[in-house]
Write a structure and sequence with these properties.
alpha+beta, Aminopeptidase, 3 helices, single chain
């Protein structure tokens, strides 16, 4: 049987504009790997919005079935990095150009986090 990768786009909105977004790819089936690219608009973003994006990504049903995460985040995005460290295990990071690559373990079917208003996964 051929396994397919599942792609999803997630956005965090504030005042009807997108302030942070992620592209998420999961391998099909239990215990797979999630690959995510997180980014935020330049300029001021209300505190907590980047953490809300991390929560939205980690709470996707397909992500909850996976065992490992590989995420790319901009260097200096300490809010996203801190939230990923809170929600994941065995976190390691390394620089890659203007980004950081984070690899971590996920708790398959792990605890849910209540999402802040304005955070919406978008249909494919």
């Amino acid at each position: 049987m051929v396994q397919r990768d599942l792609h999803q786009h997630v956005e965090v909105n504030e005042d009807d504009r997108t302030v942070a977004a992620a592209e998420v790819t999961t391998s099909e089936g239990l215990g797979g790997i999630v690959q995510a690219s997180l980014r935020a608009v330049s300029g001021h973003i209300a505190p907590g919005r980047r953490a809300s994006l991390v929560d939205a990504v980690l709470d996707l049903p397909q992500v909850r079935l996976c065992a490992r995460l590989r995420a790319v985040i901009p260097l200096g995005d300490t809010e996203s990095l801190q939230r990923l460290r809170e929600r994941c295990g065995n976190v390691s990071t390394r620089p890659a150009g203007s980004t950081a690559i984070l690899e971590a373990d996920l708790a398959v079917g792990g605890p849910r986090v209540v999402r802040a208003p304005g955070v919406h996964p978008l249909p494919e």
